[in-house]
Amino acid sequence: MQIEFQFYWENARTTMNRVMKLKPSGGCRTFLAAFVATLASVAQLFAANAVITWDNPADIVYGTALSSTQLNASFTHSDTGAQLQGTTIYSPSVGTYLDAGNGQALTVTFTPNDAGLAQNTLTVFVNVAQAPLTATAASGTPQYGVAVKNLRNQLIAPGNANVTYSGFVNNGVITDDESEITVLPVLEVSADENTNAGSSKPVTFATSPVADNYNITTVNGTLTVTKKPLVFSLSDKTKVYGEDPIPNDLDVQNDGAFGEAGFGRGNGWENAEENQVKVNQVHAVTVENGVGSYDITVNLDQVLAGVLDNYDVQINNGSYNVVKRDVTINADDILGGRQITYGADLPEFAPTYIIDEIAAPWDLAVATPGNPLVAVEGLFTTPETLNLPAADSDASAAPYDITTSGAVVFGGNFNLIRNKQTLIVNKATLDVKAADRNKITGAELPSLAVVFPDSANQLKHGDTVEAIFDPYPPALKYTTAAYGGALSADLSDGPSLLQGTYDNAIIFDGVPVTTNYNIVTTNGKLVVTLQPAQVVWNPTSTTLTYGDKLEADKHLNATTSTTYVDGAGTLQNLTGTVVYTTPDVNGNPVAINVNDTPSAGTYAVTATFTPTPGQFVEFADGTFTRNITVGKAPLKVTATTRLEYLALLHSMVMPLLMMVFFLGMMPTILARSPQSLIQQVQVVMWLNIPSFLLLVFQQITASIMCLENWPLLRRIPQWFGHPKLVIQPRPSLTEQH
User: Fold this and answer.
1) DSSP conformational letter for 302
2) Structural domain boundaries of the chain?
């Protein structure tokens, strides 16, 4: 068996590197163990260590924390002198605050990182000085009198209450205060209540304060006596202009006439010195003083000279205030307001003023009541002005204010109280009427309009109806309430209204309103008259010959062209009947019918269309008049043999018959005087007598041709009452009739 050992020895002087190889036998193991232990002891004997270098720090002051400045040891190798790295522990540690005291131990323990070097410890010492601390005695400035005594007693009481310290350590860790003081201070001062104002006395330390960690320096205080305020406070007084003031109060006792409670004779006296001074309360106000503020003050008379030197005399003056006297101006001398109607003249207003004598007597020679609209000596230097609304002011529910203004009072000594009056302008009346309307049946409802029956008298201030209404004209509408049957909403059935007068059919659509007028509305009426049916008559001929018949299609064919729209909106033809008439000699209508054969002449024929009752729209009868002319029929007379015999009879008998006839009728003829000369003498008789008799009369006519110039003869047919008998000149027998 062979064991190999390798040893390293290093230091500053030599380096040993030896290898030992041992090959012990089986019986020498115990010896080998012992040998190894011996080698270890030898190595320890010659090993290196850590060297600590650290001097005693410089002195510090209480309140300084330990830092690297004090804890600054260095560590080196004992053989090589090289700086060592390791673990360092200071006691006390960095940041520690030490109380004041000398030779306080600081210890460091260093453990090298090199395991071959041993741990080492070193102690040094530091001195901690007391911190400076200033103790300042309290100072005071007591006012003259008992305050000096009180302050002295306060100052000499043992303790810190009257000492101020400056310099206690307060760094966030140490927070020292007066509790550090182990010996409390005691002050002393020489002053009392009789020490005059202006004196100064030192405040000294009879016993100085002591603290372990502080070196205390004391600073004396000072007691200086000041003047004491001596306050006189006077109350304010007030009087009305023209009133007597309160008299001055001399050598007042207690508070006097003008002093405030506790201050009238002065507040702040010491040592009963108020008895050495006379107090007078005075002002300069008289009854004549105008409005303004006047001082009320104090005069002091010293009985003992110098007694006021210890006082700061303060006089709070009062004010004697002379205030304005009220003067009330009423815009009118009546109670309540006035009223007029729009358009009427403004009423007369009578302003008055009254000087107030209730608050205080008034002795000036100024008349009251009076007229403020004129200047008044001693009262109004400039009179009032009456303020009225415009003459054409609108009517309004809110009254107009009647005011006065502008007056300037004498010396500013009066307060004007103005009482306004009111004027209410009521609306005037304006009549507005819905105009009556007329229409005929079958026509649409007519448009509407308003009328102003008395606008010439009712409109005021140049107003016009166009200007006062908005909108103009006031809206109207037809109301269904006035009709027996309901009208449609769109009034489309207006044409169907029956004949009649519909009162209140036209009403106002809303109540017309104007600023200045009360509108009195009157509804309108609708008068519906029958529309005459339109007659159309176009005969194919209006000329006939005697003996022709009147025909329906040719002559009497009148009809109507009138149409209407029924309730269903359908256009309908008006139906009815037509009759024809012509007037007789007295103007009375005579019916003419189809198949009539009128006599020769011209006839004014009227066709009258009468609508059938019950149709949707009512219509009146319609007429149309035309002239129809009936010409004479031709008549041919031819002489025959039979007539020759009659001629013989005519020549013999007829003269005799005619003589008898005219003699019998002579009285009647003479009683009826003819009006004109009949130029034609021919007897035409429309009698159904035999033709032969006609020929006889023809012969008679021929026989009396000699009498054709006798006027009376031509009236014979009329005397007999035969209208169709005409006497004409005799024609020849071959003339056509």
Assistant:
1) E
2) 3-45, 50-129, 131-224, 228-321, 325-426, 428-529, 532-631, 641-719
Same topology between domain 50-129 and domain 532-631? yes
Longest dimension (CA), the chain: 243
Q: Which residues of 527-556 are buried (b: 16+ CB within 10 A; e: fewer)?
A: ebebbbbebebebeeeebeeebebeeeebb
* pTM over the 0.85 mark: no
Q: Name which of 542, 546, 725 is nearest 634 in CA terms.
A: 546
Architecture of domain 532-631: Sandwich (2.60)
Rg of the chain over all Cα atoms, to the nearest angstrom: 78
Query: What's the pLDDT tens digit per position in 289-330?
Result: 999 999 999 999 998 888 999 999 999 999 999 999 999 999
Of 172, 162, 168, 183, whose CA–CA distance to 134 is shortest?
168
Q: What tokens does 603 get? A: 């006839």
Angstrom distance (rounded) from CA 177 to CA 209 = 13
For tokens 């049916």, name the residue. 533
Task: Give the span between the Cα atoms of 346 and 423, in whole angstroms.
Answer: 9
Residue 442 · residue 615 · CB < 8 Å:
no
Angle, vertex CA 590, rays to CA 589 and CA 593, nearest 5: 130
Burial 3-30 (b: 16+ CB within 10 A, else e): eeeeeeeeeeeeeeeeeeeeeeeeeeee
Let me know: does 274 contact 298? Beta carbons within 8 Å: no
Q: What angle do CA 460, 461, 467 make, to 5 degrees?
A: 80
Write out pLDDT tens, residues 155-194.
Answer: 999 888 999 999 999 999 999 999 999 999 999 999 999 9
**Which residue type, as a one-letter code, is found at position 264?**
G
Structure tokens at 510: 């809303």
How far is the C-alpha of 507 from the C-alpha of 549, rounded, in Å? 59
Please count the helices (runs of H) and the strands (runs of E) in the chain. 8, 49
CATH annotation of 50-129: 2.60.40
Distance, in Å, from the CA atom of 625 to the CA atom of 405, rounded to the nearest integer, reads 87
CA dihedral of residues 584, 586, 587, 591 (deg, nearest 10):
-30
